[in-house]
Automatic annotation (TrEMBL):
Top enzyme class: lyase
Top-level lineage group: Bacteria
Keyword Kinase: no
Name of the protein in question: enoyl-CoA hydratase
Xref: Gene3D superfamilies: 1.10.1040.50, 2-enoyl-CoA Hydratase, Chain A, domain 1, NAD(P)-binding Rossmann-like Domain
GO molecular function, one term: enoyl-CoA hydratase activity
Keyword Iron: no
GN (gene name): fadB
Pfam families xref list: 3HCDH, 3HCDH_N, ECH_1
E.C. code: 4.2.1.17
Swiss-Prot/TrEMBL GO biological process terms: fatty acid beta-oxidation
Reaction(s) catalysed by this chain's protein: a (3S)-3-hydroxyacyl-CoA + NAD(+) = a 3-oxoacyl-CoA + NADH + H(+)
Keyword entries, A-Z: Fatty acid metabolism, Isomerase, Lipid degradation, Lipid metabolism, Lyase, Multifunctional enzyme, NAD, Oxidoreductase
Amino acid sequence: MIYDGQSLQCKMLDNGIAEVIFDNKKESVNKFDAATLQEWKEVIELLNTTDGIRGAIATSPKSVFIVGADITEFLAMFAQPKEQMVDWCKQAGAIFTGYQELPFPTVVAINGFALGGGFEMALTCDYRVASTEARVGLPETQLGLIPGFGGTIRLPRLIGSDNAIEWIAMAKNHKPEAALKVGAIDAITAPEKLRDVALQMVNDAAEGKLNWKAKRAEKQGPMKLNKLESTMAFETAKGMVGAKALPHYPAPMEAIRVIEATATMPQSEALLEEHQGFANVSHTSQANAMVQIFLNDQLLKKKAKIAAKTATKQVKYGAVLGAGIMGGGIAYQSASKGIPVAMKDITTDALDLGMNEAIKILNKGVKLGKVTPEKMAKVVASINPTLDYAPVANADLVVEAVVENPKVKDIVLQEVEGIIAEDAILTSNTSTISIDLLAKNLKRPELFCGMHFFNPVHKMPLVEVIRGEKTSDETVAATVAYATAMGKSAVVVKDCPGFYVNRVLFPYFRGFSALLQDGADFRQIDKVMAGFGWPMGPAYLLDVVGIDTAYHCTDVLAEGFPTRMAKVDGDAVEKLFKADKYGQKNGSGFYTYGTDKRGKPTKVVDETVFELIGTPNKEFEKQEIVERMMLPLIFEVVRCLEEGIVDTPAECDMALLYGLGFPPFRGGPLKYADELGVANVVAIAEKYAHLGASYEVPELLKSMAADNKSFYTA
């Protein structure tokens, strides 16, 4: 061993070959943090000054190669002036370039993931060999960033500008076959042969059988594009990417700008432009928010791992009570992740509806090439539709998903508790009904909790796990572990009216109703809030949720929080409900739904709706609409944090991102409050004090403003 650090080791092999080994001794994965970059720099200096080296291979004994840069270091760096960020990029970039310019051929052996900085390291090598299990890519734009270690310069010179723009803008991981096809890697081999193939390749290069100098020169010069090709490639890319990314996601467009600006430059000049581009996007609010999302998601994953380790009950067989669309979606989700499930209802029609929901999802997957017919058959066979309780009796965990009626749920829960094992867990997929109320007549309330899925189940990442007063820690841990095994992100919340997501959503809806009462046009509100970044405006969302569902939820929340969530006089939602206009489910709500001549769904405004809900008579400023909609939501989130309904700001924000589609580029309601400035949020609220209790500033927010605190720190 000629170098033995915490993150890297280096040893000399036979025939003058050096092996650079990425193996972080303290972490389960390799990543480029400041310490690793420093050690890599030292290894490069050692390789440059050691006589007799004919070539080098880079390997890792871990199940992954390098997952990328250490994101935890980024937020602190974002607070630095842009000039300091550029300097940091230059220093880090010089290390990558230093490895590329070693005076002998280099080969990297990619096992598992080589993403972001990990793949940029691979791009500095002359040849890249990947195992069949490898995944490579540059996903930085998912964090609001662009590659900063040479990815926007080296990748286009290897695979062409079109392919490189797609890889960087789409931010996807790529299988080795796809990477080989475009030239991002040079060979694929079985995992057990990876190191041997890399050694053979570097020996071939050292012996002159491979022209490694020509290969390296391709990355160091300008791109091979004539003027017409360049214009067509970049203008087309800007149009396609800009339509999807702008205005909320500037990073993909900045990546294209850098690739275009550097197309005719030698690598040394081009890298300086990339450093500037990285600094440009790193100082945007979007990058700050999206990096925070990444860190928040890591917290959820960490908590899920702890739950899996501490759970005393493992769910190997599940059951769903109540078929229908929701029950069918839950059954599909469990079966698709390898956990068989019984699906019980009282009619064959309901069972057919549930099975058809699962089959519809699978058929779409087959059509898109994401699911094989064999996989579809296996998943369908793992769902056991039943009219009696016999198959349910063996379940490790039962999800009750019958009609949202406390009396019906009470009967069903008591019934099933009597037939399942004494250590089986019972959960309710309720969206509003108190877990403590539902536990009242159960014999084993410690084995009962809420498990609130969001519709459509297969698309929405969130599951709210609701802890009742008597719910045991073991029950919560097992339920979180099951949700995770189903491919969901679980957030644990305490029992209260509306739990967390619905409790904070309905003040937002109430703000909408009050705006309508004051003469606003729901079409303008929808447009403004979609422009804010929501997947859809509040009127459209209410139609999707179901006007009837929203109306009944409003009753629960008004009873639970009578001062802040009392019903709005002349509420448009109530008027629609009483006119049997339930939204998408029956074709008419705020909008009217149908299909066009081609059978595609349509959404139009039937002007007669204004005869029912009232004619708009005032146009509001966009900022006022945003403030009146968002403040009640933010304040209710703060109250939930204040009351301990949710444990951390990270979980508060992620629950709304995953459960409601809160705009990711804003990071979540608390990250958004940080961006506005907590003191500024308090000041804005003063303008709306006359609108009632839902605009009253929570005590926690007042104290934070007084102490100049934020929910997140770098």
